[in-house]
Amino acid sequence: MKRFLQISGILFILFSCDNENIYQIKGQLSNVEDDILYVVFESSETICIDSVACNDKGRFSIFHEQEEDLNIITVYYNDRYQSFTIYPEVGKQVQVKGDARYPQLLQIKGGRINDKLSQFKKKAAPILKELADLQQNNTSFDGDESIHQSTLNLELRKIVQDFVAKNPKEEASAALISEYFSHPDEFEQSEGLLRLLSPELNDFYIVRNRWKEIEKAKTTNVGAKAPDFKATNIYGQTVSVDSFANKHCILAFTALWCDMCQTEVMMLDDIATSHANDSLEILLICLDDDLIEIRETISKDSIQWNIIADSAGQAIRLFELYNVNSLPKCFLIDQEGIIRLNTMSGEELKQKVDEIMN
């Protein structure tokens, strides 16, 4: 008994909420399906992955030794399809509670950023829940549902903008900007919100990283010089932006499994047959690496497409270079190598091509 009390005393000292040497997270999730949670610890230089047990009541505990510059802890669950993010502070115990079906609504308390974000979640709770329900109950949206989802997202963004304007000194404001205004094509909105933040946050890692992302996004904005590259197409030929000097060029980012990316859907077939090959080039950048499957697919088409596949990771590198994070995506580059259009719409692409070429 005395030995048990000694051990209990040691554990209490190690894991007390005032311990300055460890990060501590305790949680209870309802409706969680997994008995194992996957935890990712991210610092500026390193990423560490671990797993923790979750009992049949949804309770779990995470203890992590002090690590210099630990920025974010992300917990994945439900077969790693869902997750929530924690902003740790050494010596501060974090409590996580809520319904696992709604990760955006989980109350995460402990530490300045987590507490402020929990306040935001309470205010935005009705919209966050409705968006989550839409996503869970529909594999695909019809026109009305899609419009409703867009309206909800717009309302949510307004709440974020209001929070940032009222809390310019809070790191939580930077976290919300990074979460809700991070799309490369919308960098101007993100830039405007970042300028609302106090200069005190200039060295905060989220602010620094978001400014870097914005500068990168500008490299593929309309009016920018198209980033050059060298890659080998499926016929073994070296291809680059310079290969299309004195021509207009379309870079079409695609994948065989993407229905919306098919050449006819993106109106690339119409564009290719409407404009002379000596004045316009179309380069397909395909996220697939099976050259046999790609060749079989294009053999059914009357057009001989110029394609870069993902063999040796070529397509992935170009996706990163051109800030492509969703499909389909097309860039129209003029004879001077300037980006004239950045779009996901085949109709918009054809309209712009016809306007320029005619």
Q: Count of helical segments?
A: 10
Largest sheet: 5 strands, mixed
Percent in strands: 15-25%
- Content-based structural category: alpha+beta
Helix content: 25-40%
The CATH superfamily of the largest domain is identified as: Glutaredoxin
Q: How would you sum up the global shape?
A: elongated
Mean pLDDT: 90
Name of the CATH architecture of the largest domain:
3-Layer(aba) Sandwich
Q: How many angstroms does the end-to-end distance come to?
A: 91 Å
In the sheet with the most strands, the strands line up as 13-12-11-14-15
What would you report as the Rg, rounded to the nearest angstrom?
A: 25 Å
Unreliable residue runs: 1-18
Count of domains: 3
CATH class of the largest domain: Alpha Beta
Any chance you could write out the topology, listing elements then pairs?
Layout: H1 2-15, E1 22-30, E2 36-43, E3 47-53, E4 59-65, E5 70-77, E6 82-86, E7 93-99, E8 107-109, H2 112-137, H3 143-166, H4 171-180, H5 187-194, H6 205-217, E9 231-232, E10 238-239, E11 248-254, H7 268-274, E12 280-286, H8 291-298, E13 306-308, H9 314-321, E14 329-333, E15 339-343, H10 346-357
Parallel strand pairs: 1-7, 11-12, 12-13
Antiparallel strand pairs: 1-4, 2-3, 2-5, 5-6, 7-8, 9-10, 11-14, 14-15
Helix pairs in contact: 2-3, 2-4, 3-4, 5-6
